[in-house]
């Protein structure tokens, strides 16, 4: 599972990570700016609105002309903005007749975005409409509530989509100021995967970032601190089922215990019907069709989350099973069979996660942005093979404290008010 990752910096300080793959005449690329919603400060939604407006016009081209220039070469461009990064994702044919014009256009847009007032108003209304739609979806509601509960006053607690009031306060000048601060070479990571030589990759990367000033890299975020105690958040929502999330703060990217914690969480709630939660919640008690455990990382800290949705009348029993399953795993560890099943599942899925250029791009971009070792994929695989049950249990005990976790419930008020 070794990957040949090449790495260099552009003239204006952007870091570039490149993997050549010659199977298909395509190139997948990501331009990641350290400009996610954790940088919003007092205006939630500022980072995402800036990202959403990058292709809405430059001094030389309108949004329509930009769109046409990309479409005629069959390029696919997607903007994403999470808590750590604002990303521009590009897929394009690798022949220079297509690659050159597409990456030239993208480079001009990210370096020369002007944030026209009419586009700002249109994107603002689209984002506000998205907030209204999210408020009617229990899954969105519980994700937002869970994040706020575990991250507290950290910038990660703020939803990247912002709030209606803050979105209304964002004007073109604020967007230009944010863009000028964070969309600079020193704050940029470029990842390229596909049908390119090293020389072509160097030219392509320079095209993408040539319009950016050198600038300065954003300061590191303060680490996330766990809640000071156990808390329960109840969010009323009329439905036949209650959605449940239990969890807390976990590890940042690059932590040495991440493989062990990842394997432990997989034993608890990954791997389909073989996990502890799937067995106890579905097969043994019929409480829920879907119960899982999820572990995610971030630059300043991650999330450990057990989640399910159950009939309202079964809520108390389901909470007891979830909490008891975690405590039992922390106290006793996993049996040998469960450990080996989870290990085989994870190791077997790793090659599939790197099969396509797009999947590989995701992994390499993570390595590049978070400053992980270039052989991180190989190290992760080797560590998974070496871990024993006691090492997994010890890592979980070090980083997961049930007494410092949040329980978030989204369901009918009568059902969620009865449980602790």
UniProtKB/TrEMBL annotation:
Residues 25-154 form the Peptidase M16 N-terminal domain. Residues 170-346 form the Peptidase M16 C-terminal domain. It comes from the Bacteria. This is Pitrilysin family protein. The lineage of its organism: Bacteria, Pseudomonadati, Pseudomonadota, Gammaproteobacteria, Chromatiales.
């Amino acid at each position: 599972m070794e990957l040949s990752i090449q790495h260099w910096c552009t003239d204006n300080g952007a870091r570039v990570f490149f993997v050549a793959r010659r199977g298909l005449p395509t190139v997948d690329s990501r331009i990641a700016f350290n400009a996610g919603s954790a940088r919003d400060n007092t205006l939630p939604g500022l980072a995402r609105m800036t990202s959403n407006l990058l292709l809405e016009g430059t001094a030389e081209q309108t949004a329509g002309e930009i769109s046409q220039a990309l479409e005629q070469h069959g390029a696919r461009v997607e903007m994403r903005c999470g808590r750590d990064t604002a990303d521009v994702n590009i897929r394009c044919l690798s022949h220079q007749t297509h690659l050159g014009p597409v990456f030239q256009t993208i480079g001009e847009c990210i370096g020369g975005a002007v944030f026209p007032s009419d586009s700002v108003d249109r994107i603002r209304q689209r984002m506000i409409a998205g907030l209204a739609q999210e408020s009617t979806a229990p899954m969105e509601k519980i994700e937002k509530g869970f994040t706020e509960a575990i991250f507290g006053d950290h910038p990660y607690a703020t939803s990247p989509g912002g709030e209606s009031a803050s979105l209304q306060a964002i004007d073109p000048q604020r967007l230009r100021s944010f863009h000028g601060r964070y969309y600079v070479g020193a704050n940029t990571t470029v990842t390229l995967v596909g049908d390119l030589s090293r020389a072509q990759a160097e030219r392509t990367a320079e095209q993408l970032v040539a319009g950016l000033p050198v600038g300065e890299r954003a300061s590191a975020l303060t680490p996330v601190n766990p809640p000071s105690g156990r808390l329960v958040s109840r969010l009323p929502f009329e439905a036949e089922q209650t959605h449940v999330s239990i969890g807390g703060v976990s590890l940042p990217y690059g932590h040495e215990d991440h493989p062990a914690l990842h394997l432990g969480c997989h034993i608890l709630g990954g791997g389909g019907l073989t996990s502890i939660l799937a067995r106890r919640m579905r097969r043994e008690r019929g409480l829920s069709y879907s119960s899982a455990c999820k572990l995610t990382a971030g630059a300043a800290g991650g999330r450990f989350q057990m989640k399910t949705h159950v009939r309202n009348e079964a809520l108390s029993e389901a909470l007891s099973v979830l909490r008891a399953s975690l405590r039992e795993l922390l106290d006793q560890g996993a049996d040998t069979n469960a450990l080996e099943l989870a290990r085989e599942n994870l190791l077997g899925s790793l090659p599939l996660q790197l099969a396509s250029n797009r999947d590989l791009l995701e992994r390499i971009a993570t390595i590049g942005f978070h400053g992980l070792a270039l052989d991180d994929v190989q190290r992760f695989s080797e560590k998974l093979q070496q871990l024993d049950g006691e090492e997994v249990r010890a890592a979980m005990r070090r980083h997961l404290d049930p007494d410092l976790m949040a329980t978030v419930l989204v369901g009918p008020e009568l059902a969620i008010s009865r449980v602790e």
